[in-house]
Specification:
The protein is an all-alpha fold. The chain has 25 helices and four strands. It has a two-stranded antiparallel ribbon with strand order 1-2. Strands 3-4 form a two-stranded antiparallel ribbon. Strand 1 and strand 2 form a beta hairpin. The longest helix is centred in the C-terminal third of the chain and has 48 residues. The radius of gyration is 30 Å and the shape is globular. The protein starts with a helix and ends with a helix. About 0% of the residues have low confidence.
């Protein structure tokens, strides 16, 4: 009973707390009494902090051997189920922690904004849905909360309500909805084939399946949906668009946590449904390499700080996918790939929590993301530089920081793939892995040089003269916690990261690690050194030459030279796919309209001909005529009235007159399309019945 209460609190407390917070903030915005508004802010942060405390308590309770599970059989038709153990403990606590830090930061970041109450509500709603995803024990529960999470977080993207935010929100929503529908199709196929959606049961059933055709079809549908949320190539297009326009606290959660909800699904595919399936692993590895490189190249070219961090998220998702693919390819020591992927997920959540919130500090103070405007902002700010270096060196995989541990494990997994099979393609993947790691160092070094080495811009100089502080002390302390964790985890990997990996690896059905991973070995140092050399070479030979432009003897500007025509959304998705699909649908529905019109005409001339001869008009037309005559009568009265009354009253009566004319015309249109609407309804109903009969066959 204690476990059931805890799981309900974790999911429902943020959702209902967000509703109350929204009511308090709404009351504060409508009145001059600021106590309501302050109460909503306190409740907003208090709910996230209470959720974190609840997650820690029940996480420890579950790790001490107690079963923490909940099943509600009646809700949503098929019922939903939650469980707190292993990976779920790690990521529920990490998600609640990230939300708490981000929420505290949001109180400062959103101060003075009109729609902060809306932001608080949807942030808490997204928290409850995200925890529901991580706690889910079956595909049905995952899907329900996955969709709630996607729709609630959509408000983050459109929060600013400007043209850029609207366009980015359209992309985000389109990818989320299409991904969800394709995922649902895969769920239907899985249930139709195996009769269950429970992850634990699907492991044995999928392994024993003789015909893998349906399993592959369903698996790729699920990969499409989970990959869309994770930001995998070629569905990564929403990340570079959504992150820059969303508020910085939301960007930290979008990148740090919500993408991991997609990776959670990918790990369940590779660790449950496709256990040891080499073909699936090879396809995933190909997508991983493409994702790594595409994100890294876009980040190298970009001159928008938040856009750089967003593209970096795409690249780092590629690193995680490398581990997910290597799980299926390796015949032995799959634990390296499992633990490497999970640990890099944890690390990336911490990296982007720090980096995006630091970017939020700059955006809040300077109202710009352009490198040429924010140049020199970190000069003379040692605390700001220390926080940045912890996250930047961590994500670049420098020894002594947590990113080095997870990247070393992933690199070793690719090397083992090559040694076990001898296939040259894995050697190429290893080389590209090291190059992508070098790109990471190059674009993080670019940001460091812009913020802490370059001469401050005019905007930064003006800000420094007018403001003594750039961030409240409480915000500095909040940001220091995840930054310190990056250093602690990287400095003592055996006591920290090895335990986290051993706990979280239970999400897959692979064997446990026989031994702890030796981090600081010569081979791992060699791989890290190669990436560092590549990164320095890319910075000095590419960034300093290609991305910069000498404006004068004293000033150098950063220029984005990436060809805009190569933007995948504008080049492929919008003009070709959307144009083609809409054009095809237009032609199909046009053909259906003509066929329906022919059918209705034939029915009127044959079946309904006797009825038409015995009655003056059909019943629907008679009703329409009565309504039309009433409208015409009222309109006629209005016309006579308008002639007798002049001035302002005449304009009002004429507007009423036009309104009745519109109603009359609408009634005529409805009467004409009544038969078409009934016929299309019958066609849809008949199609649904045929589909149900097909599913229930045998």
């Amino acid at each position: 009973m204690k476990g059931e209460i805890g799981l309900l609190l974790l999911v429902l407390l943020p959702m209902f707390g967000g509703l109350v917070s929204r009511m308090l903030n709404g009351a504060g915005e409508r009145s001059r009494h600021k106590g309501w508004l302050r109460g909503g802010e306190v409740l907003f942060f208090g709910i996230t902090a209470l959720t974190l405390v609840t997650a820690i308590i029940y996480g420890v309770y579950a790790q001490n051997g107690h079963e923490v599970a909940l099943s509600i059989p009646e809700i949503c038709g098929r019922g939903i189920g939650f469980r707190m153990e292993g990976f779920r403990v790690v990521y529920v606590i990490l998600a609640a922690f990230a939300w708490t830090v981000s929420s505290l930061f949001a109180l400062w970041y959103t101060k003075g904004e009109e729609n902060r109450g809306r932001y608080y509500f949807y942030t808490l709603l997204t928290l409850g849905a995200t925890l529901g995803v991580f706690l889910s024990v079956d595909l049905y529960t995952t899907f329900i909360f996955f969709e709630i999470m996607s729709l609630a977080s959509y408000v983050w993207v459109i929060q600013e309500e400007d043209a850029e935010a609207v366009r980015a929100s359209q992309t985000y929503l389109a990818v989320a909805i299409i991904g969800g529908l394709v995922m649902l199709m895969g769920i239907f196929m899985i249930y139709n084939s195996f009769g269950t959606l429970q992850y634990d049961e699907l492991t044995n059933l999928s392994a024993a399946a003789s015909d893998k055709t349906v399993l592959y079809a369903a698996g790729f549908c699920l990969l499409f949906g989970f990959g869309a949320k994770a930001g995998s190539f070629p569905l990564h297009i929403w990340l570079p668009k959504a992150h820059p326009v969303a508020p910085a606290p939301a960007s930290a959660l979008l990148s740090g946590i919500l993408t991991k909800a997609g990776m959670y699904g990918v790990l369940l595919l590779t660790g449950r449904l496709f256990l040891g399936d080499v073909l699936f692993g090879q396809i995933l590895l190909f997508l991983a390499v493409c994702t790594m490189l595409v994100g890294a190249v876009l980040a190298l070219f970009s001159i928008d700080m938040k856009h750089i961090l967003a593209c970096s998220s795409v690249s780092q998702i590629g690193f995680m996918l490398v581990g997910a693919g290597a799980m299926c390819i390796l015949e032995e020591e799959q634990w390296l790939a499992v633990q490497g992927a999970i640990l890099h997920m944890v690390n990336h959540s911490l990296f982007k929590l720090v980096l995006f919130l630091l970017a939020g500090v700059i955006v809040k103070n300077l109202e710009s993301r352009d490198l040429n405007v924010i140049r020199g902002f970190g000069v003379g700010k040692p605390w700001f530089m220390a926080l940045y270096l912890c996250a930047a060196l961590g994500i670049a995989g420098i020894p002594g920081f947590s990113g080095f541990v997870s990247k070393s494990m992933l690199h070793e997994a690719i090397v083992l793939c090559y040694h076990e099979s001898g296939m040259i393609v894995y050697k190429v993947a290893e080389i590209l892995f090291l190059i992508a790691g070098g790109c990471t160092l190059a674009y993080m070094l670019k940001l460091f040089m812009v913020l802490f080495v370059a001469k401050p811009s005019k905007e930064v100089q003006s800000f420094n003269r007018k403001h003594k502080t750039y961030l409240p002390v409480a915000m500095k302390l909040a940001l220091s916690i995840p930054a310190a964790l990056i250093v602690i985890l990287g400095s003592f990997p055996k006591d920290t990261m090895s335990r986290i990996a051993a706990t979280a690896a239970s999400i897959t059905a692979y064997e446990e690690a026989p031994e702890a991973f030796e981090v600081f070995t010569l081979e791992n140092m060699k791989g890290g050194l190669i990436s560092v050399c590549i990164g320095l070479l890319l910075y000095w030979c590419f960034v300093r030459i290609v991305i910069t432009k000498k404006v004068s003897a004293k000033e150098t500007r950063y220029v984005n030279r990436f060809p805009k025509r190569l933007d995948m959304e504008n080049l492929i998705y919008r003009p070709i796919l959307m144009g083609f699909l809409l054009g095809l649908c237009k032609k199909l529905f046009g053909l259906l309209d003509k066929l329906t019109e022919m059918l209705v005409t034939a029915v009127r001339r044959t079946i309904l001909k006797p009825v038409c001869e015995t009655t003056s008009v059909p019943l629907s037309r008679a009703i329409a005529n009565v309504i039309g005559r009433i409208c015409n009568g009222i309109a006629g009265f209005a016309r006579k009235f308008s002639h007798k009354h002049q001035g302002a009253g005449k304009d009002y009566v004429e507007s009423v007159n036009r309104g009745f004319d519109d109603v009359s015309e609408t009634v005529k249109l409805v009467s004409r399309s009544l038969s078409y609407g009934l016929l299309t309804f019958c066609v849809g109903l008949l199609t649904m019945v045929l589909y149900l009969l097909y599913c229930l066959r045998g």
